[in-house]
Write a structure and sequence with these properties.
95 residues; mainly alpha; 73% helix; 0% strand; elongated
């Protein structure tokens, strides 16, 4: 999420803070998706990751965020193309 990928990777592998990183990423992904999950709940799920497969949930939510952003971008470019093709006061515009 964001531009902190290198930082998350360094914290996870060499420093062994994977549970903490998963807690932060899970809470951030949930917040962006409008899911009400706080840090304590995210921490509990990440500590019990082997039973809850919380990492799978976080990965799925981040993919949905990326897909949503891509759809928004393509939708905006389609609107801009339509606006350029039919400028205001053109014969194709309805009153």
């Amino acid at each position: 999420m964001g531009n902190d990928g290198f930082l998350y990777c360094v914290l996870t592998f060499p420093l062994g803070c994977g549970c903490c990183v998963l807690t932060v990423l899970g809470e951030e992904a949930a917040t962006r998706r409008g899911i009400d999950v706080g840090i304590p709940s995210s921490a509990l799920c990440s500590c019990c990751n082997l039973c809850t497969c919380y990492v799978c949930t976080v990965v799925h939510e981040t993919r949905l965020i990326r897909q949503s952003a891509a759809l928004d971008a393509s939708s905006n470019s389609s609107r801009q193309a339509a606006a350029a093709a039919f400028p205001k006061n053109s014969p194709m515009e309805r009153n």
